[in-house]
Automatic annotation (TrEMBL):
Pfam families linked to this entry: HTH_34
Boundaries of every Winged helix DNA-binding domain copy: 15-94
Organism annotation: Costertonia aggregata
Protein name, per record: Transcriptional regulator
InterPro entries, per database record: WH-like_DNA-bd_sf, WH_DNA-bd_dom, WH_DNA-bd_sf
Length: 96
């Protein structure tokens, strides 16, 4: 077995790594919070959240707060499990 087997390509971009890291320690984060914390553009953040949603690693909820639309994200059970495997694999790789 290769030492990079459990590294998940879905998380290998720095924006996706940041999104998942934020969602691992918070129940949810909205679009603006992720954008501000990651310093990402709207389009860049949208494309990476869509990729994680397509992989079923995050869940997207759209709602209105007052009259303003709000999109918030949370990590799914699968997302938390796969991200933890990814982090464990990176730690093993670094120790080699």
């Amino acid at each position: 077995m290769s030492i990079i087997n459990n590294i998940n390509k879905a998380f290998d971009h720095r924006i996706r790594l940041g999104i998942m890291s934020i969602l691992m320690v918070n129940d949810y984060a909205d679009f603006n919070m992720l954008k501000e914390l990651l310093g990402a553009t709207d389009g860049n953040l949208a494309s990476h959240t869509k990729a994680l949603e397509t992989g079923k690693y995050i869940k997207v909820e759209k709602q209105f707060i007052g009259r303003k639309p709000n999109t918030r994200y949370s990590a799914t059970k699968l997302g938390k499990l796969e991200f933890q495997k990814h982090i464990d694999a990176l730690e093993k790789l670094i120790r080699k």
